[in-house]
Amino acid sequence: MLILGIETTCDETAAAVVERSSAGEGRILSNIVLSQVSEHAAYGGVVPEIAARAHVEALDHVISRAMAEAGCSFDRIDGVAAAAGPGLIGGVIVGLTTAKAIALVNEKPLIAVNHLEAHALTARLTDSVAFPYCLFLASGGHTQIVAVRGVGNYVRLGTTVDDAIGEAFDKTAKLLGLGYPGGPQVEVEARSGNPARFALPRPMLGKPNADFSLSGLKTALRLEAEKIAPISDQDVRDLCASFQQAVVDVVADRLRAGLKLFRESCGEPTALVAAGGVAANEAIRKVLHRLSFEGGTQLVVPPAALCTDNGAMIAWAGAERLALGLIDTLETPPHARWPLSDLVARPTPRRKAG
Ligand code: KG4
Ligand code: ZN
Predict the structure, then answer these.
(1) Is 281 near ligand 1, meaning CB less than 6 Å away?
(2) Predicted model pTM
(3) Which residues of the chain have pLDDT under 70?
């Protein structure tokens, strides 16, 4: 099965062709990602209107490249998948409408993919992970711990009550005068900083639920920076290191709680899976390794290029749905908000604990 996947929910214009074998194994034939970072950098964040216009300009070209690299024509594909949300609505409309046009003209099925489901299923494309597994999704817009029980079958075990982790990294970078996107820059500064210099809070630590809260941490960091203003380069490094250490401690604690909730409701997970741009952070990766070792659980972290937004994950989620006969009509609407819990449930058998 060959699927074209289109991703336009945020600031990446992306398209890919992915193959799924009858045994359920995935292979990426092409994966083209055009980042809009330079167009948004001057504003210190993504400007929705600029993003939507940039998707309109780039998408046809990105799709042509993905098809050419895969050595594939529209008549050879088995379906067209597009991220139909959640995301910035202008971009979602561009990608979904384009997918509908290709599906209509070439008489192919359309699969309207939930962007979060695509992140959730990527580990099955890269590592053929079996259900049920525990997903830690941390990006600029989302921070969730999810029990992935089957295609369309998700139980959200924890979420952030305010900022996403990537957003907290980005806001910290902005406050300290580092560039956009801020996560990678904060990580670089943190490497030569002292993580113990500033006593920042660890919100939600020890709570039995698996929720996150990041906004208090960000405020505490701002107050520390104001106290010692004007800040030197070394102050910036120490603030970044202290911030990152607080996030790492919070992630460890919240994931421990999340894995406990997972075992109580779904039995033993086949793996702990990370997804989203924040999973590119080395310190976060390290703590994920520690947690998986502690719990005797396999850790799966897809390559960074598949953790961040891309078309291959949309194509793969489309392939998984099409294989189950889950397709959509041309009337399918785009969604700005679209929680995983709204998807159609596909139950899989419960595994035994232990
Ligand atoms: O998944 P993603 O590419 O896009 C969405 O938000 O959907 O994630 C981007 C987010 C940004 O907030 C970025 O700052 C963060 O992931 N990020 C990182 C790192 N690389 C990307 N945060 C911390 N450390 C990193 N190395
Ligand atoms: Zn994403």
Answers:
(1) yes
(2) 0.92
(3) 345-354
